[in-house]
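Changelog note: in this version the structure field was regenerated for every chain. One regenerated record is shown below for reference.
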Amino acid sequence: MGSRTARTGLMVRQRNVTASAVMRAIVREGPSGRKELAAATGATFTTITKTVAELIELGALAESPPAAPRGVGRPVVPLDVPATRLVVGAHLHPERTSCGAFTLRGDQVAWRSATATGSTRTERIAEAVQLVADIVAEAGAADVLGVGMATPWAEAHHGEPPPLLADVDHDELRRGLRERLPHPVRLEPNVRALAVEHYWWGGGGDDVLTVLVGRSVRAAQIRGGELSWDSPGAGGLVSHLVVPGSDRPCSCGQRGCIKATCTDDALVRRAVEAELLPAGSSQHDLYPADDTAGLRELRQARAEELGRVIPLIMSLVAPGETIVRGRLGRPDEIDACIEAIRHRYRALVGREANVRYDDSTRPGYWARASAALALDRYLATPLEQEQERA
C-alpha cells in the first residue's frame, strides 16, 4: 500500500511538472501543436496528449482552428491560453495606486489609477485593497486566476530616511487582500515584478539581471526562467556594496555604500546640502522642468558612480543581459551611465557587457508588471490551481 501511495504522489507531481512546462511554453512561444510541445518540453507525445486533454477539460487551454496543411499528414491543431483567463496586478506608488486586469498574453482589459489619500499605512492598505477588489469585480472574479502586487522598496534601514506611507507591511497587505478576495495573491518588491514582466511579456531571455535605481538600488535576476534569490528579502538589496571612489558616510557605519552614494534619497540630501533644493524635497524634485546646472552635475556624478558599481554586481552574478531601469536624468546622463558600465565591465572581466537602459513609463505599465507576478505564480502549478478552481 505504501509503495502505491508513493507512486501516486510521484505521478501527481510529474503531471503538475508537465502541465507547468506545457503552459509556460505556450505563454512564452505562442500557440503550439502537441508535437511542438513534446519537443519543447522533452516529454513524450503520449504524455503531452494526456496533459493537454486534462488542461483543455479544466479550461486552461483551448484548441484553435487547425492551420492549413502544408503537406501530407494531419493538420496541426494549435493550442493556446484562452483570452478570457485574466490576471490582476496592482502597484503601490508613494502618491497613487494603479491596478489593471490583463490576459495571459499581457493585453490590458481594464486599468485604473487612484490618488493616495490615506493618512496612515492601514488606510493606505485599505484603499489599495478596495481598488484591487473593484478591478477584479469589473474584470469578472470567476475569470481572474490570481492577483499580483508590487510595492516600493525604500532604504528604511537604521531609521534613515523615514519610511513613507507606501512602505507598508507585506503581511498586513496580504491579509487585507485575502480578506476581500479568494484569489491567490503574490506580493513582491517592484524590481522583482519588473524582472518577471520582462521575462513573460517583454521578450526577455533566460538569463537577465534587472537593476532598478530609485529611492533604493535593487537587483533581480531571472535565470533559467526562474527568479533567483527565493524570497523578496533574501537577495537583491545591494545597498551596502561600496562604490569605488566614494567616501560618503553611510548610516551602517561604512563609507561609500550604494545607499549613501547612488540612491535618489542620497542625491536629494546632497542637493539640499548644496542649497540646490529646499529642505523637504523629494526624488521628483531632482528632475525639474526648469533644470539647473547644479542638479545636472549631481545627476552626472551619480551616473558615473553607478557606472563604477553596477559592473561589480554583474561580475558577481554573470548575467547574459543586464537592464538598468529607473529615472536617471536626461538622455545624455543615461548614456554616460551605460557607457561607464561598459567601460568598467570591460576592465573587470575582459569582455563586452550586454547592457542597456529601459524606461517603460506608459500608463498601466506598473500594474502590468505586477500582474506578471500573478501569471508567474499560476504557471508554476497550473494543473493544481485549476483543480482547486474546478
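Spot check on this record: The two ends are 29 Å apart (CA to CA). Residues 1-5 have pLDDT under 50 and may be disordered.
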